[in-house]
């Protein structure tokens, strides 16, 4: 009888401790609070200066948001989703003329709680890509590009705004084991883009930033992640010329060569009928990344 009583008491103590532990775990999450009072402001940008609405024709805007109890913000513009802790994001519209667009801001609070607000913005876009640029990119129908892996300085990096391949330029075949060389980038004249990751199903990118893709695996090699498992996908492409610099932009997670996050826009630094050199700034704001592309 005494042994049975001890077992009952022991079970009771374990149950109380477990219940107390669960309560402590629950309390550790803190109060769940959804953001409130979302405020959204829009700034029109032309030649790096503010313009009155609807802008002077660049099509570029900066959207800023603030809200009570918000820890991060997500901006949804033309199907693109941009997650920013800073509360601001930039976007360039390319449809010619003055057009009205919906901009949605999702504010995130503690415990994943969120609130959203949608506004409409009127934007003027006047840039029309030159015919020879469209012909080069799409062959007026569809054209597939690849990294010029057999050429010196086909991939590299440098300081932001610095010269081409300033810090590093890959030698021929230097990244043969990265998962980059069999990727193909197809630009269709209707504005669609396909990134075929090749038969190996791998892509190449920067540590931490590459996790934005939602793929898996990969092998760390310094700050590079090689052979990261990912699938072929499609997106949209647009051409703009902020400050008279021809720029190729991809929607969503669209990227070329090496994933670095950022704004997914590539300056066309130089181009000919069968080659283009492009650069983009990474999402950490550390480097400009350079790519030399040739047609398939």
UniProtKB/TrEMBL annotation:
It comes from the Bacteria. This is Glucan endo-1,3-beta-D-glucosidase. It comes from Mariniflexile jejuense.
